[in-house]
Amino acid sequence: PRKFKTAFALPEDNCVDVYANDLGYLTIHENGKILGYNVLAGGGMGVTPSAAKTFPALAKRLCFVPPEDVIDIAVAIVKVQRDYGNRSDRKVARLKYTIHNMGFDAFREKVEEYFGKPLTACHDVDVYGFDDHIGWYEQGDGKFFYGLNIENGRIIDREGFQLKTALRKILNDIGPGVRITAHQSILFTDLDESDRERIATILHDHGVKTSEEISTLRRWSMACVALPTCGLAVAESERVLPGLIDTLEPEVAKLGLDRDAFTLRMTGCPNACARPYNADIGIVGRTKDKYTMFLGGRLLGDRLNEKYKDVVPFDDLSREITAVLACYKTERQQDETLGDFCDRKGLDDVRTWADQWLVNGTAAESS
Question: Checking CA distances to 121, which of 51, 97, 169, 332 falls within 20 to 30 Å?
């Protein structure tokens, strides 16, 4: 295959966005023992703007396998993609299009044939949690790990903010293990509890906030590199999202939503490297300084969002997002997340309410 992404997740922790991958394994476990895996197939976010035949997709629940069949089921799925996928057109050379063209039932039958034995239905268990692992945690062996939020994954030194130098000093002086997360951040592993103050001091000495000092909004935001690094980008993303967050933070605080966790993801084009299509709020570059807004995905990563507004100027994004959040604040149900609210209410109703708020600066009548 041209590209074949694979991820393992836990039902209580879908930090890898397992439904966005070509092949996903959702671990089924009881009392500390792995029973097997629900196998998911056909996820992928990328869209080619000039090709209407392309689309984002979440993986579909294919089957359950015991641990000893993990490799064999992967081999069967890859063979189906090899034999039935479109290998002449790279725009559709992904498993999601093979499943779409064959039909899921036919795809499953062919996987079963290549697997060589009947496929067992998935367990009822599905994802119900998402932990970004930011902050301090015991890692199970007497040691600790620390998740450091790296905004948009950019490790850089600039005036007043020496993140690269700080990370180098932590690695040289403390010598932790390092893991990179699917949300563009870093985990320092194998730490002693006494390292907590040392790491905070190093970060502060170099003008870097600890994870505990950043807003919830910024913590759950993410951008692709876009301009000037990516030749596919048609709009800014990584370089402008921090400023957008700066503008939104006081508005979110005024609404009393500064502790609400929702994903805000931005990309410089529809190819969607920052996975905007399953986020609570997706912002996708449309053309220079203009974006398409998507609403209604959710932090769990198991639902696609829908187009909310198109060709929105960058300078209007903050107000547009604030209007949506005002609607959410006013009309949400108890414990309802932003994405679930948008999905329940419907984007037409959200749009009508938010547009009136933008004109009047006050809440619209509940529908």
Answer: 97
Determine what percent of the chain is predicted with pLDDT higher than 70. Answer: 98
Tokens of 40: 């998911």
Say how far apart CA 25 and CA 70 lie, in whole Å: 9
Cis bond upstream, residue 228 (ω within 30): yes
Whether the Cβ atoms of residue 29 and residue 36 lie closer than 8 Å to each other: no
- Nearest partner of 20 among 222, 186, 310, 286, judged by Cα: 222
Pairing of strands 281-287, 264-267: parallel
* Residue range 57-107, pLDDT digits in tens: 999 999 999 999 999 999 999 999 999 999 889 889 999 999 999 999 999
Homologous superfamily (CATH) of 220-360 is Sulfite Reductase Hemoprotein, domain 1 (3.30.413.10)
Tokens 């905070």 locate to 200
Which residue in this structure is represented by tokens 């290549």? 114
Check residue 367 and report its DSSP letter: -
pLDDT digits over 117-155, tens only? 999 999 999 999 999 999 999 999 999 999 999 999 999
Looking at domain 135-215, its CATH architecture is Alpha-Beta Complex (3.90)
Q: SS3 for 185-228, per residue?
A: CEEEEEECCCHHHHHHHHHHHCCCCCHHHCCHHHHCEEECCCCC
Task: Tell the CATH superfamily of the 6-115 domain.
Answer: Sulfite Reductase Hemoprotein, domain 1 (3.30.413.10)
- DSSP-based three-state secondary structure for 362: coil
Token pair 């903010």 in the structure block, residue: 161
Q: Is the pTM of this model over 0.70?
A: yes
